[in-house]
Amino acid sequence: MKHLERALDGQNQGWKYFLVFFISLIIGQTIGAIPLVIVIAINAYKNGGMPVKPENIADLSAYGIDSNFGLVLMVIPFLVSLIIAVLLIKAFHKRTYMAVINGGTSFRFNRFFVGFVLWAIISIVILFGDIAMNPDNFEFRFNLSSFIPLVLISFLLIPFQAATEEFLFRGYLAQGVAAWTKRRLLVIVIPSLFFALMHGLNPEVGEFGFWSVMPMYFMFGVVFAVVATLDDGIELAIGLHAANNVFSSIFITTKSSVLQTPAMFFQKEVDPFRDTWILLFASAICITFLAHKFKWDFKVLLSKVEVDETEQQSNVEVVETIEPVESQ
Question: Which end of the chain is more exposed for a tag (fewer CB within 10 A), N or C?
């Protein structure tokens, strides 16, 4: 194990984490939202004033913005936040972005693709199973001219949005919690709580209530954290997260969804309690499959985060003493 242990370097002062999160998330999201604000202002000027505030704040079509273009504008703040976070972590912690991802030097693309494909398959099975059982709750809205750009934008940009959240929570914050507490269970729980709270302003929360939606966000966080902890890196978690968001963008949307896209299906009624139980079942299948494939040992979750003594010794320079050879 080396992803969490990489943080045991004495560079984990609390003020550093506060500044990195504040600057990358708050300031980064604010700077990244400038293009969106400009586009809204231009459209308002053309239309003679601001429209009535939409019921769903994520519905940019209310401001005259094309849904696909709106999706691009919504991803930009995450790209800005990711860039800022990488730069600040390098400056404050002397840690590279790869050290935050898996403690190593190379990105495990095979892990990312396994996670992406697995969650995509699970999501497709759940969606079409739900459509088969509740056909009246879904409206088919396929439009080829808008669907093709949507697919391209979703696959090209949304993984960066998912990577930003995984980098900050399952990567960076998880390493901080590991350094402070040395407990992997807390590495799973604490970042998941912050991850859920970060989504507290999503329109779904306003529609269904805090306590109806937060368990689902928290559960997503726990699943991603368990996967990252067992796999010693966040590539699988990025793949799972990206697949979930790409799938939602392309296939299904609702009136309260944060992703207001020209998706293939529109779901009329949403039951967050039912969806939470479905997510729990799907997550169990997902983790079981990954554990079998990658031979995970669940006992790791109960172990402390500490540097292996043999690994420490390998980093210590050993000076060999060579006896001089007497001349004949």
Answer: C
